[in-house]
């Protein structure tokens, strides 16, 4: 028997009808394969939130002013944001990275200072990043994940904060998956129809301006510092055989870039939540992915990933702790 | 402002886009109303599993032999079943009730001994219960919930174990909702198409035999001891302003009976999981309900309810712990 067969046998011998734990069984199988073990464990879960500003926010693509990115970073540091609440609930170590916020946080020791620049450039005027900035951001994401790996982490999730970053995610989806821009754009933080049409017009202009081909070039032209750091982080998590919990629209756009660079990253991904941002559905379909939860969230910060954590933990616990038919002396099906 | 408006205002002032926490916001509102409080809390969560046998199992409607009900009760007592694993994970107090298993558990102190009889009667031969048995079962369910209420519990969930009990649930759905029996029957623990057709034929015969009208009569003729205890338990939980986490197909059939007796019970219910048992979708639609999770579970024991617990807890935590825009100094949307 190969490992897949051994794991499946272990699952099927648990005291439950065959397949009755549905998606939990799929998760148990997936993480067992990632860890190459019949007795997988979740160790030292970490959630990294990357914050960065977007030049394109100047075009009025968001309901919120750009200052909110920095304000929300302070909210994270003070423990008052949704992601703080959910990480505390599940004992997940939360770390906040300044990937490129348009604000100087001075030497605040609670932030991981990795600012690439004070926000990306306005894509209508110039590519969002230089290729050097994009590489630097990816490298930083890799280093941060490597640090956690060395401390024993084997499951990790990523979130983001950046006013305007649904625009980057929409553009990345458009470019990577060749989906019409209209279908890639949604309400973001709560735009009405007229505002969405305006956003579509802005993104169309942006999309028509540059036609890069390589995965990293597309990321450079249309991404953001927080997105590129997540892309690097995902690639490094794959290298270290970590389980990656994938959050919503923006986090998945970072994965899209990682997938284009190294398709095997998908083997390590658990898709946590299908965002209420409508294009996320298309993004997941493009990746052949099916999300665990559908709670109509559209908040970002990685909240979907952290809310899914206990379900993933349940999958590992049933695999390790449930009795088998033989152990429990329970009759099997006829 | 009335309480609904006050709660909604509290939710809307949290540092997130309006409505961005989706179903968590609905849960927070619902539990605040149940508890008549702007600062709801979840206290001493308890999960009661009711076990009972079904005479109809003699007709071969399940893949598993009847003995499995008692065997699984021992598995619960030994901590080896899925429900044990998930209750331990979330610190939920698990209690196992012998509602009417066809086995003598002697004086095992870990079981709550409330056996009505050694299994219900075979519905093809006689009504499942007598009206006295059904009343006794409902009364018992009420007493057990009352006990937990007096110890401080304000959130409760119910699960079941009983070989053959999807048949009862299908019959209850058919009778209460006037849905054709073919649409009320699914694969249960894993029947193939031929076996499902056989099950439909048996249930048709059973359904045509009796035509009770009153809610409690329908429960008496087609229910089970574990189902009737759950119905009583749900009604008592409503009386005590508890939040009720509703599990899958069989637990919802018990709720259906409770709903027919007292429609207001729905105000206290959170629907945790849409079962892979296909008729559960119809049952939820009939109740106008939308389940939180859809993990393709079809296990019973109340596993869906317990797996949803951390999501419900997240809803309460965000309401109580997240900062408001004013607290955090974050700018609101334009």
* Estimated structural class of chain A: alpha/beta
- Mind telling me the CATH class of chain A? Alpha Beta
Strand order of the largest sheet of chain A: 3-2-1-4-5-6
Q: What is the H level of CATH, i.e. the homologous superfamily of chain A?
A: Nicotinate-nucleotide-dimethylbenzimidazole phosphoribosyltransferase (CobT), large domain
What is the succession of H and E elements of chain A? HHEHHEEHEHHHHHEHEHHH
Mean pLDDT of chain A: 96
Q: Main sheet of chain A, how many strands, which sense, barrel?
A: 6 strands, parallel
Radius of gyration of chain A, Cα only, in angstroms?
20 Å
How would the global form of chain A be characterised? globular
User: Can you count the helices of chain A?
Assistant: 14
**Most residues in contact, chain pair and counts:** A-B, 60 and 60 residues
């Amino acid at each position: 028997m190969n490992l897949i067969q051994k794991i499946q046998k272990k699952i099927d011998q648990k005291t439950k009808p065959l397949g009755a734990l549905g998606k939990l069984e799929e998760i148990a199988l997936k993480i067992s394969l990632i860890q190459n073990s019949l007795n997988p464990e979740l160790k030292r879960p970490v959630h990294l939130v990357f914050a960065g500003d977007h030049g394109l926010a100047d075009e009025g693509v968001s309901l919120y002013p750009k200052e909110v990115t920095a304000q929300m970073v302070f909210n994270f540091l003070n423990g008052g944001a949704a992601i703080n609440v959910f990480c505390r609930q599940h004992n997940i170590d939360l770390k906040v990275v300044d990937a490129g916020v348009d604000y100087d946080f001075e030497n605040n020791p609670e932030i991981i200072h990795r600012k690439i620049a004070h926000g990306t450039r306005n894509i209508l005027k110039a590519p969002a990043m230089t290729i050097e900035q994009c590489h630097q951001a990816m490298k930083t994401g890799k280093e941060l994940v490597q640090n956690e790996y060395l401390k024993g982490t084997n499951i990790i999730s990523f979130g983001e904060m950046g006013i305007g970053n649904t625009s980057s995610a929409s553009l990345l989806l458009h470019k990577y998956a060749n989906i019409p821009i209209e279908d890639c754009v949604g309400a973001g933080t709560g735009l009405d129809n007229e505002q969405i049409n305006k956003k579509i017009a802005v993104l169309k202009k942006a999309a028509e301006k540059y036609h890069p081909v390589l995965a990293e070039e597309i990321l450079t032209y249309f991404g953001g510092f927080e997105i590129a750091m997540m892309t690097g982080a995902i690639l490094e998590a794959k290298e270290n055989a970590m389980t990656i919990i994938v959050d919503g629209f923006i986090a998945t756009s970072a994965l899209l870039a990682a997938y284009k660079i190294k398709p095997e990253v998908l083997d390590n991904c658990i898709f946590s939540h299908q965002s209420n941002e409508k294009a996320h559905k298309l993004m997941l379909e493009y990746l052949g992915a099916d999300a665990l939860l559908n709670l109509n969230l559209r908040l970002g910060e990685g909240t979907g990933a952290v809310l899914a954590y206990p379900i993933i933990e349940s999958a590992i616990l049933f695999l390790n702790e449930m009795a088998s038919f033989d152990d429990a002396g329970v009759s099997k099906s006829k």
